[in-house]
C-alpha cells in the first residue's frame, strides 16, 4: 500500500494522518474497514448503519490506494449497512463506475450526486513569466501593486519550507499564527494541519510558504506537491495585512516555485467554485459522490425516499428558474 502511486489524497500517509488527527468526534469511534487485495485497498468507516468513505472536509478527492479491490462487494454484503455514501470522487476514473457496479451487485439502489467544482491549471510546459503573461491584466497589476506596497511598508521576504529540518516547526507555527489572525473560522480539528505538514515534509510533498513583513508572518500558504501536481491546499493572511495584497503576492511566489522549480504539469485549486480561482486556473471539473441504499432495511428505504424527494424538488426549482429566465422582458 505504501508503494502505491497516484494522488496524494489516495495514499496511505494521507489516510493515516486523516484517521489519526482529522476525524470528527462522532466519526472517530466508527469501525475502520479495509477491503483489500494485492493491488489496492479502499479505506471505509462503518457506524453500523452507514458505511462512509474515510474522507471529510479535509479531503479533496477520495478513492482506493492503488486499484479498487474486487472484494468491495463482498465486504459490503458482510457488513450490511443500510446506507453507503462515498465522496468526493473523480467521476472520470475507472473506479467511479466500478464502485457503482460493486454496490449494485451487493443489492443496493445506487445514485450519484454533485459535491463541488474543482478548478485546475494545465501548465503545458510554461514557465512562470509565460504563464503570468497570459493571466488577466487586473491580476498582474494586483501582484505588482502588492509588491510595491510591501516595499514601502518595510523589509519583507518569502520562505518556502519543504523539508523536515529544524525550521519546520517554526514554519508550522507561523502558518497557525497567521490562520488565527485571518478571517477564517477555527479549524474543526486543530491538530490535523500541523500533522499534515509533518507528514508532507517526511514524504517530500511539503511546500509551506510564509511571507514575513519586518520579521512578522502576515501570509501563509500550504501547497502539497506530488506526482507532477501542485495542490493549493490551505491559504490565509492576517486581516490587518489585507491592504498589502500579501496573499496575492505569496500566491504568485508559490506559482513561480511550482512552475520553474518543481516544474509541475498541473496546479490544482482543489475544492470550490470561488470566482477568484478563474483568474489563476484554466479548466474546471467536478467531484461527485456515490450513494447507495438497501431498500430491504427501513432506514435504507426512508433515506432513499428523502434522497429522491430532495432531487425531485431541486429539479422543479431549477425548471422554475429556467422558465423565469426564458420569459421575454416587458418594455
Residue-averaged pLDDT: 91
Please list the strands of the largest sheet in the order they lie side by side: 1-4-5-7-14-8-13-12-11-10-9
Structural class: alpha+beta
Q: Nearest-angstrom radius of gyration?
A: 22 Å
Count, helices: 10
* Helical content class: 25-40%
For this entry, what is the oligomeric state of its chains? single chain
First CA to last CA: what distance?
A: 66 Å
Strand percentage, roughly? 25-35%
- Profile the largest sheet: 11 strands, mixed
Please state the overall shape, judged from the principal axes of the Cα atoms.
globular
Give helix and strand order, one letter per element, not per position. Answer: HEEEEEEHEHEHHEHHEEEHEHEH
Low-confidence stretches: none
Our count of domains comes out at 2
What's the number of extended β-strand segments? Answer: 14
